[in-house]
């Protein structure tokens, strides 16, 4: 095969694999020779040869044979006079792979450049998860294995997973770090079965220093994949390799997850990322505003807007951040200050979708059941502590979880004055900081109401 023929094949590969993949993985290949059905290429690093072989060999073989050549397989070599250099780092939208040689660090899922520890806003709902992720990212001896991060959509699981990968890469670039989703794990497993490459699959997953699997609930109900995941898990733990897992629920709550897999996941540190509270949401918005002021210089945001958004959009941080992005873009286009009127006009659909559906009556019923008291006693005139404290908890939750005003809440609590409601809300807020039982009660009730 001539260099001219290889140039023609490269043009076809550009259309096949996309511009980013082509520039990162195909363009650096130098055709050396074709002998006995083996096409030999020079590559700058062993890692690049391995990656191209695993991910683009089929496409290259197809185009070579379509051009009239007879090629059975590909081979790669690093010329003796080629200086060792880091493998290329693709854009975030493409699979990321870095390192050189046997100790390569590999991420088979894309890492978001913005998902770092520096950009992660820490508050009470996520401080334990953040601290655990930081500890793992520092490397050193494995102290808890696996680390399991779980929580609902948009609470920061994937952000922490990416942050760990970035930090490990910066601190210990020689580590072999494999980051992928559970869906990708299953896809690679099925592909290996179909192509009879199970030994390659086992070698890839059992030779890593750190295995990171996102959204592990995806493998629930998929028996063969769970079995292979279990064996991979055991092999890495036996070698004292770090495993980091994320899921949308606690391992014990994932239906159709095999008992042995569930047990393995529960043997390490299992950390819950709680739904965000008002203070954390406000902190996230304030952090984002600093970023947007660089993008939209001179754009002003009126007092009270961030507080309004943090109060109204409470279920999902992604929706919250998306709302702020839209708000800044819209204000920039129309050349107006971001005030309450513009906010309500621009985000009308988001605010409607985020309206709390929880009623004061539902809160009262739940709280009375939780504390095992009669509803009539909780909203009635009795001032006994056994009734007054649950009443204050219900008032606090009504203020946090509904859009009702203080006077409206007071009317639903036996016609009480709004100052009584204000005192009850303030009292519970104070007790949450000093009384662990009250804090736990409020959190459990809030979760039950928002479920």
What is the topology?
Blueprint: H1 3-17, H2 19-26, E1 30-35, E2 38-42, H3 46-55, H4 57-66, E3 73-77, E4 97-98, E5 105-107, H5 127-137, E6 147-150, H6 157-171, E7 177-181, H7 182-194, H8 198-206, E8 210-214, H9 223-238, E9 242-247, H10 259-266, E10 269-272, H11 278-295, H12 305-312, H13 317-334, H14 340-346, H15 348-353, H16 360-370, H17 375-379, H18 385-401, H19 406-412, H20 418-434, H21 436-450
Parallel strand pairs: 2-3, 5-7, 6-9, 6-10, 7-8, 8-9
Antiparallel strand pairs: 1-2, 4-5
Characterization of the model:
It contains 21 helices and 10 strands. The protein is α/β, with parallel strands linked by helices and 451 residues long. A hairpin with a 6-residue loop joins strand 4 and strand 5. Helix 11 (278-295) runs parallel beside helix 13 (317-334). The longest helix is centred in the middle third of the chain and has 18 residues, at 278-295. The radius of gyration is 28 Å and the shape is elongated.
List keywords for this structure.
single chain, 451 residues, alpha/beta, three-stranded mixed β-sheet, 10 strands, elongated
